[in-house]
Amino acid sequence: MRATRLWTWQLAAGLIVLVLLGLHMLVTHLDQLLGWFTPPGVEATAWASVLARSETTFFAVTYVILLGAALYHGLYGLRTILVELWPNGRFARALAVLFWTGGGALFVLGTYAALAVRLAAAAAAAG
Amino acid sequence: MSVTEPRAVTFLVRRYDPERAAPPRWERFAVQAETGMTVLDGLNRIKETLDATLAWRSSCRMGICGSCAMVIQGHPALACNTQVLEAAESGRLTLAPLPNFAIIRDLVPDLAPLFEKHRAVRPFIERADEELAGDLSGEFRQSPEELLRILQFTYCIKCGACLAACPTAATDAEFLGPMALAQAWRYSADSRDGGWSARAPLVARDHGVFHCHYAGECSNVCPKGVDPARAIQFLKRRLVFEYLGLWREGSPCRELVRPGPEKPRPDVPAPPPPTVGPLNP
After folding, report:
1. Do B211 and A5 lie within an 8 Å CB cutoff?
2. Least CB-CB distance to B204: which of A3, A85, A92?
3. pLDDT tens for residues A90-113?
4. Which end of chain A has fewer surrounding CB within 10 Å, N or C?
5. Burial B171-209 (b: 16+ CB within 10 A, else e)
6. B242 contacts on A by Cβ (under 8 Å)
7. DSSP annotation of B6
8. What is the reported pTM?
9. In terms of pLDDT, which residue wins out, B249 or B40?
10. Each residue's pLDDT tens digit, B98-139
11. Do B174 and A87 touch (CB under 8 A)?
């Protein structure tokens, strides 16, 4: 059943956002206390720290997962609200097409941004 | 209920006459209210002594039929189950028809969509084994624990108060609503039922169970203490667990228990022979 599948993924995406956004908050706001994924003597939100985190495989993967989960959770939630306000089959189908294509494009763009550092490093190593 | 002195209460009633082009309006009626007078009694007094054209729907006068649900002091409630002096401490009592329904006249909502939604979720025991289910000479027994799973949901009187209080139904007229969804769970959770496979696609469709915001107002206003919001969460849990392959539920009870040959006690007269037997013997 389609609605069950979509809603279950909505729940799962919400949980992923909760965990990964929580991790993001811990890393960026409690850096003085925890010092996770932050070079010593540098603030967590400084460019050097962001660059250092982006170079690690763990952060490259979690950035992409967080991006996908946040996009799905947000766009599906928005679709639910809009379909509830305008319950029309054609409108719902148009929204689905718009959100899948728009969300997909944003996901590709965001993934490129998350992996840009690693892609640039790989290109430099290749030649 | 403590006895208090009779007091003048102003009934502020939402009136609507479909035969007049005028929009709904408020009308005041002064009623002398005494201890024990319900809102329904007050409406009856208005009709008898002040305005015979006032319309509302009622039947049993004792909170069983669910006919007289209306908005009393801003909250959906049964008129027969609400004391005037308790509800109108300020001396003013506002009465309006249930929202989220079309209005037929004055305080009479059109409940047809409510019953259509109820019918849509197949609110009855369904079994594949028609031969066994049709055998009226026996009964499928339920344990007290199995009964408790569904008991509170059987108290629903289909008054429509929950749907009137539902914020989702306010924006989405196609939403199945708390009453129909709670009844879908009432039958699906019944140990004698085998109709889940037919019922699940009906409740899991668009405008179904996943559109519930879990505001919980349906449970707050239910005059019978039913918790439809809880039933909706049970439905969601079953659907999601089934999708994830985590749901473990046995098949419906197959043991038909018939009155057996019991050792007669000499001090108890023998029972009469059964009056019903198997269908199509």
Report:
1. no
2. A3
3. 999 999 999 999 999 999 999 999
4. C
5. bbebbbbbbbbbbbbbbbbbbbbbbbeebbebbbbbbbb
6. 4
7. -
8. 0.85
9. B40
10. 999 999 999 999 999 999 999 999 999 998 888 888 888 888
11. yes
Rounded to 5 degrees, φ, ψ at B222 are -60, 120
Distance, in Å, from the CA atom of A95 to the CA atom of B175, rounded to the nearest integer, reads 19
Whether A1 sits inside 8 A of B200 (CB atoms) is: yes
DSSP designation for B273: P
**How many CB atoms are closer than 10 A to CB B250?**
7
Q: Kindly state the tokens that stand for A34.
A: 């925890």
How far is residue B87 from each of residues B54, B78, B80, B83, B163, measured CA to CA in Å?
A: 21, 12, 12, 6, 22
Residues of B in contact with A5 (CB under 8 A): 243
Gap between the Cα atoms of A29 and B21, Å rounded = 63
Helix A47-54 with A89-126: angle, nearest 10 deg: 90
Q: Is the ipTM of this complex over 0.85?
A: no
Considering Cα of B126, then B127, then B130, then B131, what sign does the dihedral take? negative
Tokens 């749907």 correspond to what residue? B163
Q: Do A3 and B205 touch (CB under 8 A)?
A: yes
Of A5, A85, A92, the CB nearest to B243: A5
DSSP assigned state of B62: S
Name the residue among A7, A87, A92 with its Cβ closest to that of B210.
A7
**B126, B192 Cβ separation under 8 angstroms:** no
The DSSP annotation for B116-174 comes to HHHHHT--S---S-HHHHTBTTSEE---HHHHHHHHHHHT----SHHHHH-HHHHH-TT
Out of A11, A85, A92, name the one closest to residue B171 (CB). A85
| Chain A nearest C-alpha distance from B124 (Å) | 22
Phi and psi torsions of B140, nearest 5°: -85, 120
Closest-CA distance of chain B to residue A92, Å: 10
Q: Which two tokens stand for residue B86?
A: 């308790």
Residue at B84: amino acid letter: V
Q: For residues B266 and B281, give the distance between their C-alpha atoms in angstroms, rounded to a whole number.
A: 33
A4 contacts B210? CB cut-off 8 A: yes
